[in-house]
Amino acid sequence: MAAPCGGPGPPAPPAVAAAGPGPSTGAGPRVCFAAGAAGEAAEEAPGRRQGKVTVRYDRRELRKRLHLEEWILAQLTALYDCQEEEIPELEIDVDELLDMESDGARSARVQEILVDCYKPTEAFVGDLLEKIRGMQKLNTPQKK
């Protein structure tokens, strides 16, 4: 486990050694990982942004995808005339549909998935194709 700032090792300048929450830090103690001398860390710390170990996606696209998935679930519940838990095991892969070259191929794929549905699915398929038009695949994160 890493030692809190100001722990064992050479004494650090007061700006770096503050372990408690301060006006510009978040709640809780900070942990410092210094690769160089303590003086270097003091010079870099105030101007540096904290790094994050996350994959970045476009939030707008994620929000659109979430709304689409919620809409699909509501439509399937209505098409199969049952509760969400009772819907047959279906997988409508939006990324797969986006990879297809034409709306005709997309429509045929969705009709193939919904082959067991006894209600008409043409309106659902048309609305789905309209909603995914212009969407981006989410398989690869965007680089910033």
Helices, by number, come to: 6
Helical content (DSSP H or I, runs of 4+): 40-55%
Oligomeric state of the chains in view: single chain
Q: Overall pLDDT, averaged?
A: 73
Based on secondary structure, the structural category is mainly alpha
User: Which spans have pLDDT < 50 for at least 5 consecutive residues?
Assistant: 12-25
For the termini, the CA-CA separation is 31 Å
Order of helices and strands: HHHHHH
Describe the structure.
The protein has 6 helices and no strands. With 144 residues, it is mostly helical. The protein is globular and about 60 Å long.
In short:
This protein has 144 residues and is mainly α.
Please give a handful of descriptors for the protein shown.
144 residues; 42% helix; mainly alpha
Give the SSE layout.
Blueprint: H1 14-17, H2 38-44, H3 59-80, H4 94-99, H5 103-113, H6 122-132
Helix pairs in contact: 5-6
